[in-house]
Amino acid sequence: MYGAFMKAVLGLEDGTFVKGEGFGVPGERCGELVFSTQMTGYMEALTDPSYHGQILMFTFPQIGNYGVDTDNFQSKRVWAEGCVIREACAKPEHHDTIPHFFEQEGLSGISNVDTRKLTIITREQGTLRACLLAGDDNEEYAIQKARDEPFIEKKNLIPRVSVTGPCHIPGPGKKIAVLDLGIKKNMITSLRKRGADITLYPYHARKDEILEEGPDALFISNGPGDPASVTGTRKTVQDILGEIPIFGICMGNQICGLALGGETEKMKFGHRGANQPVQFRDGTVSITSQNHGFVLVEESLPEGCEMTYVNMNDGTLEGFCDPYLGIYCVQFHPEAHSGPHDTEKSFFDDMFARLS
Amino acid sequence: MPKDPAIKKVLLIGSGPIQIGQAAEFDFSGSQACRALREEGIEVVLVNSNPATIQTDPDMADVIYVEPLETDVIAKIIEKERPDGILSGMGGQTGLNMTAELAEMGALSGVQILGTPLQAIYQGEDREKFRDLMQEIHEPVPKSMIVSSMDLLGEAAELVGFPAIIRPAYTLGGSGGGIAHDMDELVRITELGLGKSRIHQVLIEESVAGWKEIEFEVMRDAADTCITICGMENVDPMGVHTGESVVVAPILTLRDDEFHLLRNAALKIIRALDVQGGCNIQFAYNNGDYRVIEVNPRVSRSSALASKATGYPIARVAAKIAIGLRLDEIQNNVTGTTPASFEPSIDYIVVKVPRWPFDKFKTADRSLTTAMKSTGEVMAIGRSLEEAFVKALHSIDTDIIRHTSLSEIRMILSRPTDERFPCLFDAFRQGMTALEIEELTKISPFFLEKIRNIVLMEEELKQGLTPERIRQAQRYGFSADEIAASAGVQVSELTGLLRDPVYKMVDTCSAEFPAQTPYFYSTYESACEIERSESSKVLILGSGPIRIGQGIEFDYCTVHAVQALREDGIEVHIVNNNPETVSTDFDTSDRLFFEPMNLPDVLHILKKDFYTGVMVQFGGQNSVNLAVPLKKAIDELGLPTRILGTTPDSMDVAEDRDRFSLLLDKLGIPTPPNTSATSEEEAKIKAETIGYPLLVRPSYVLGGRAMEIVHDSDELASYMQEAVRVSRTHPVLIDSFLSDAVELDVDAVCDGTDVLIGGIMEHIEVAGVHSGDSACVIPTQSLSASVLSRVTEYTKKIALGLGVVGLVNIQYAVKDDVVYVLEANPRASRTVPFVSKATGIPLAKLAAKIMMGKQIADLGYSQVAITHVAVKEVLLPFNKLPGVDTVLGPEMKSTGEVMGIDYDFGRAFYKACIAAHNPLPLKGNVFISVTDELKNGIIPVARSFIEAGLVLFGTSGTVDHLAQYDIPVNLLRKVKEGSPNVVDMIRAGQIHLIINNFGDKQSRHDHNRIMRVAVDYSIPYITTLQAAKAASQAIKTIKTEELTIEPLSFYIGSVQAR
Q1: Which of the listed CATH numbers 3.40.50.2300, 3.10.180.10, 2.10.109.10, 3.50.30.20 matches domain A6-149?
Q2: What is the reported pLDDT for B119?
Q3: What pLDDT, on a 0 to 100 scale, did the predictor assign at position B726?
Q4: Could you tell me which chain A residue has the CA closest to the CA of B343?
Q5: Chain B residues with CB inside 8 Å of A72's CB?
Q6: Which of A313, A338, A341 to mutate to test the interface with B (most CBs of B within 10 A)?
Q7: Could you tell me where in chain A the CATH 3.40.50.880 domains are found?
Q8: How far off is chain A from B390, nearest CA to CA, in Å?
Q9: A346 in B contact zone (CB under 8 Å)
Q10: What are φ and ψ of residue B180, in 5° steps?
Q11: pLDDT (tens digit per residue) in B402-436
């Protein structure tokens, strides 16, 4: 009934370990263990490059119910280091199963573990480094590997997820230069829906290279890891400040803040899910999709910056603008996929309205 | 936006009696709303005709009216109370309809409609307005046509094709609707539907049968912030009313993009409706295509389910929004730190299974359609769908027959009925494939595979027990009994192999934030979130799903017991599985367990923490039945827990015929001659010594299940032969039946030395009608002081003799001045809330305190003699269950109750009749046709009707008889004789009250037809002389006197003042 059983263990740096059933291929995967409370859109999350360097755990206990829907992938592949779930659906309504897909793609995951227990540990202790062993259940080894794993702040993740050279996606409308730090497909979809003529630039692109094409605006995408470590990109953005309007989402928001002289800090366990309430400065509240472990410190932003959105749960900054310099950024994901579409129109329509 | 300062006083309309389509969910929502408003300093005026509700308790609202939910009554209340606003969306469809009617009659000048605007009430309920709105905002609806006369049916059929769905406008729970597969069915259902519709209008609609049915609970505030609380998915595809479907939460089979396609539509719709509060929106979904099916711009049964499924208190938040607060200004009480403006995320799976009354109505059409037939529901929570399915089936308390014949299984699967869901398991057991089952049922293969997993687990266990198999079976929710049965071993062989469950918290946020709410479910995982503490705790067993015979009254008692203990600082926990109720609101008790309530489930809880006591008296017969086995198990396990109150042994004395008879003999209290038997032969021999007619029933049941009156040995034999499945191990009880006796119900509390009588109720129905179905009155109207003092004396003797500690209900029959004891039940009865409301004595609270060791003398209450009159009348479900026998008997059939209160019997009875939707006419035509035994008794009744200006019609026997007494009665033919008869006149709207009983088979047949038509056309009817007398008295009184419209405290206050 269960097929061949693959041993597996997840070890955490604090010495916690859970044994379960491995899926995908045998292997050893290390990274921060993070949890997402989204109940749908598991493949969107797994293929979101922002999860690179992290082991993604879903709090919803039954994952894979509608199979692996490649059309909704947010990039070409799964970027999460590994996947932790309570149960993987063996017979989804359509498509392939997650375990089979993981096997095909050479990925590893662990199922049949008490994800709620791990979530509570993460909530209480803050994000922990972890090691997922599939095909082996040596917990001591897993815990040691978790402790040996470099902190995410020390990892240089963006080069692995960014485009390698400029890439042009033609369109009839505004010319948008996109700094690709690991962009989700739906950001491009939202831009294209509005006719954008897009050029993706790698993280190391410089001001001249970007401005050469005469873009109407710079858009900075989401991306994995610690924004403070992306110093080259920050420099590029600093150089462009005031030249053309700049828009950013998630990592893009943080990079803009840093470029203005602000600071970011690591959050205890971050915001990951599809139910995060943010309040716009007019008082209205929107439900947003989020995935970030670092946050811009509001007080660190220079004069001239205005906080536009705030998280209703913990009061952290969810968006800011600098009207003088033409910077408009949000921390949450208006492009959704997964998650609510509530802010898609306001963010992208507003962006294009400012360009016309 | 702070709350609107213009709103200081709000009128809240309750939903009235429990009926099919409108159950306890509105007491849950309404109570939350009352509390939420009062927290904001708003004065709340409440009107509800249902006394068995927490919301009508003295401390729930500032002013409480227990009055009929009729516009003229409510208009008077508005005139008197002058509220600033009326909260329309808390009393179900009744509340919305009342609000609309009040507005239409101009009674709301100066009163703001809060929450659901008038326009949204119309748009939600009037099909044409709904369709127009959807078209305006470009949301797709099924092709359809509004029909208000039969001539348009042909055109409608052409437009939408077959099968076609018929939905009447303005009815409860889709009553009167259906699916037509051909023109004949279309004509029949439309005819009925038009009659049921308040505005004589039905919608004929394209069938989306077989599509996925998805619903969303949406909230919106005045600042236009919109959130969805919960998406839910029906296991039964479109074609079955969502209230009749097995439902799961969250939505499981939609991709993220599909989910948000529907969520976006839901947000667009609530904005277009301009609802400020909560709204339920239902969709049909099929491969990227969808239709908006229905919107309910109010709290609903689904919103109650969504609240319990997520922990998000929808009604509480909706009430605050209605007075102007924004979502972000309202706190999420679950986390205590985050605002209500978020969407819950859950980390478990919820399954709801409806509870149908077909065990009571064996002849009812069991097919499930777009009209509701269920009385209640259970909810189960698991970490897998398999576990939640199995736990739901453990909770439902229905005998599930296992089918093995493939042809029978195919028959059951091909048509949605209550049997279909459990039969899915049988289909897999008999080797059917998911594909075959999908073809027959259109149920998504995803759900079928989950059910198949459960059946495969059974198969695996058959291969032999291994620790891994046992572990997996437990994770799927299998009980020890089920594991043993599947493996073919004794439960005792599993000792040491089974693990205990852990308890996880329902927290609205999938553990993202620490939660304050003590709301738990069991599952089999590694970490438990309950930490054992050495402070003493009490566990109270709830009553499970609302069933006929075990209704909201027991939830009322459960909640009161909790309140009483909390008042005294005792930590009290509840276990229950009914998502509609106040008892399962997370802040009712110190800890809530949402669990099945079988012995192992309760024991697991008791083992997990330090419980000094457990209370089984309040939850009804199911929890009482656990007393003896629970006591045994507690002793075996050496737990420190006591069964509080009356001992299980004393309960057994009351239930055991022989032991009870011995006690009564000893006390010198007469009882109708009685005996018991376990076989047909024994029964026949014993019956001869008592003499017919006899009342027969199985022991240990509630609500008179399978109780009958038998008139001769043949009837007795067939009763004994019939499989009385409800009680396999207990004998059949045989009592002499006292014809024409007056029956009494007494509710009392006893502390072992003292007895406090809450009230003595006189039944208005004749003996033989189940006490739960009988209208009754406090104080008694026809009994002498000496009879009453004997009743009081017997009650005290029996309570003390039984050793009752807590509640006791005793039923008596009085015949020829002799008082006979019929039965004594040392537990909460369904009349406790009525007595408490009528007299102001909080019996259930007192009982709970007594069970904790207090004495009656210390509690400050004594028996009261009231000067007002309170009448309880019942709600019968016949209008929702086409084809069932409408004759009342010893088998309970009613679903709910109302109270009429006033200063004389006539007015109180009149109010009760209106409230029970059986309004007595003050003019028009009365049809009287009674058997010979009643012909003399009916004379003064008929005369009184004539004096009141009513016109009488009757059949030949009655006409001739009354003519002898100069009472003019117009002649009609008997039904079997053809036209013109009463049925034709009812159809023509020319009869306004029916008084009819039956004797022989033919008259019973006629009676059934008349009752059926009366039910279908909503004509009030009376079947007993007592009720006819009461009606005539009431009509006469109303002709000359005004109804008293005063709050409950006006009556009760005067009692306590004395």
Answers
A1: 3.50.30.20
A2: 94
A3: 43
A4: A275
A5: 255-257
A6: A313
A7: 158-355
A8: 16
A9: no
A10: -110, 130
A11: 999 999 999 999 999 999 999 999 999 999 999 99
Tell me which of A30, A83, A250, A329 is the catalytic residue: A250
Pairs of residues, one from chain A and one from chain B, whose beta carbons lie less than 8 Å apart: 154
Q: Chain A: give the shortest CA distance to residue B259, in Å.
A: 8
CA distance B594 to B381: 7
Q: Encode B41-67 in three state secondary structure.
A: CCEEEEECCCCCCHHHCCCCCCEEECC
For B345, the closest of A86, A93, A273 (CB atoms) is A273
Q: Which residues make up the CATH 3.50.30.20 domain(s) of chain A?
A: 6-149
Best CA proximity match to B932, nearest among B973, B972, B961: B961
Whether A169 shows a pLDDT value over 90: the answer reads yes
Region A198-208 average pLDDT: 97
Chain A residue whose CA is closest to B223: A284
The tokens of B384 are what? 């897998």
Tokens of A41: 């859109």
Choose among B627, B692, B636: nearest CA to B654.
Answer: B627
Q: CB–CB of B369/B547 below 8 Å?
A: no
Q: Which of A30, A34, A56 is nearest to A44 (CA)?
A: A56
**Nearest by CB: A313 against B259, B342, B456:** B342
> How high is the ipTM of this complex?
0.97
Nearest to B259 by CA among B227, B233, B236: B233
| B184 Cβ contact partners less than 8 Å away, ≥ 6 residues apart | none
Which residues on B lie below 8 Å from A339 (Cβ)? Answer: 256, 260
User: What is the 8-class DSSP label of residue B201?
Assistant: -
Phi, psi of B448 (to 5 degrees): -65, -40
Integer Cα distance of A184 and B125 in angstroms: 43
Q: What are phi and psi of B311, to 5 degrees?
A: 90, 0
Decide if A120 and B511 are in contact by the 8 Å CB cutoff.
yes
Name the pLDDT band for B77 (thresholds 50, 70, 90). very high
Residues constituting chain B: 1058
Q: What is the pLDDT of residues B94-109, one digit of tens each?
A: 899 999 999 999 999 9
CA closest to B455 among chain A residues? A1
State which fold the A158-355 domain adopts: Rossmann fold (3.40.50)
Among residues 56-85 of chain A, which lie with CB inside 8 Å of chain B? 59-62, 65-66, 69, 72
B229 to chain A, minimum CA–CA distance in Å?
10
A261 CA to centre of own chain: 23
Share of chain B above pLDDT 90, in %: 70
CA dihedral B180, B183, B186, B188 (to 10 degrees): -120
Q: Please give the Cα distance from B704 to B697 (Å, whole number).
A: 7
Interchain contact A287–B (C-beta under 8 A): yes
**Nearest-CA distance A13 → chain B (Å):** 19
The contacts found for A298-307 with CB under 8 angstroms, 24 or more apart, are A300/A257, A300/A261, A300/A262, A300/A263, A301/A257, A301/A260, A301/A261, A301/A262, A302/A260, A302/A261, A302/A262, A305/A257, A305/A260, A305/A262, A306/A281, A307/A281
Q: Is A335 one of the annotated active-site residues of the chain? A: yes
